[in-house]
Amino acid sequence: MNLTKRQEAELVTAIQGRGEVPLKFAYLGEGAGNWDKISGQREEGGGINSAEGKLLEKRIDDFISTLSSEKGVNIIDIGCGNGYPVFPILKKLLDNNIKFKYVPLDISQEMLDLAIKNVADEFPETESEGLQIDFELGQFSDITYDLKKDGSVNLMLFLGSTLGNHSDLNRVLSNFRDSMSSKDYMIVGVELTNLVKVQNITSHYEGEVVEDFVFNTLNYIGVPKESRDMEITWNNADNQVEIRAVLKEDVSIKIADESFALFKGEKILLSRSKKFSESVVAQVLSDVGFRTELLTTNEERGYLLTMVQPTRYSI
Ligand SMILES: C[S@@+](CC[C@H](N)C(=O)[O-])C[C@H]1O[C@@H](n2cnc3c(N)ncnc32)[C@H](O)[C@@H]1O
């Protein structure tokens, strides 16, 4: 893992200011491989990725039919992970002879490389262009605008319930909205909650694979494995699973020029994974200024996919 100066500053500020290590750093460097393992488990174990994939396959015709795509579609895979979740869409575009370009967008160069490789292995003719961007930092309309210069349309994808990992949903969604024209679409996939099943939800986060993943950043800044435990809790007020490091002893930290200590008993938030209800998803998207074109859930009501477009206000 290698952090830029800006990322180091953000990390120090987040730890000292709110006792949190932003999860996004866990995907950098070797973290991409750790995420790939979790993603595989979520697929095999019937988790988020498999629920999402099945729903996407079932409703793919509806999603694709709304695109006016004579000049092709740019598939902007926001927070691409290993790229597998977009396969049903790429396959459908190929089957329907719709020209497309795969544009993964991620904070992690290693995730981008993996997604581009996986897409190239499965769909060898695909043209890809990776964008290394931290989407929390602002809108990226310069890039989305350039992509459409040849008359193509943009379809943004925000899959894998990534929306649930962010403390400030409005900020993230506003950045996406401000990177879209009123002709572009975005498909968002989120895990829904069933409060009766909360116990099952937290147990999905147990185990070494998740531990290796969420502790990546703390390892990087020199908190050894022996000095901490992992705590997984359900936060009822915010409807989210939270993973924390609990320190078993005092630890000295050095990030860039900054040295400070973390003390025995201190807890550091490493990950949040918010679960939604249908009405909350619809409300959050509408508050940010999106209109809903399509909204669908699987039969178990455990997963939701929605296709939205920025609302164009008339003046
Ligand atoms: C939960 S994973 C989901 C991956 C994939 N979409 C899936 O469904 O399996 C989140 C992805 O978003 C990326 N990511 C997280 N925060 C980000 C940020 N602020 N800017 C850009 N990418 C980010 C991570 O590197 C990772 O690839």
Structure description:
It contains 11 helices and 13 strands. It is globular and about 60 Å long. The model has no long low-confidence stretch (mean pLDDT about 95). Helix 2 packs across helix 3, helix 2 (about 30-45) packs antiparallel against helix 9 and helix 3 runs parallel beside helix 4 (about 85-95). About 35% of the residues lie in helices and about 25% in strands. Strands 1, 2, 3, 4, 5, 6, 12 and 13 form an 8-stranded mixed beta sheet that branches. Strands 7-8-11 form a 3-stranded antiparallel beta sheet. Strands 9-10 form a two-stranded antiparallel sheet. By secondary structure, the chain is α/β, with parallel strands linked by helices. It starts with a helix and ends in a 5-residue tail after the last strand. The protein has helices at about 5-20, 30-45, 50-65, 85-95, 110-120, 140-145, 170-175, 200-205, 210-215, 215-220, 280-290; strands at about 75-80, 100-105, 125-130, 130, 155-160, 185-190, 230-235, 240-245, 250-255, 260, 265-275, 290-295, 305-310. The protein folds into 2 domains: about 5-30 and about 195-275, no CATH class; about 45-190 and about 275-310, Rossmann fold. Bound molecules: S-adenosylmethionine (SAM). S-adenosylmethionine binds near residues 79, 85 and 162.
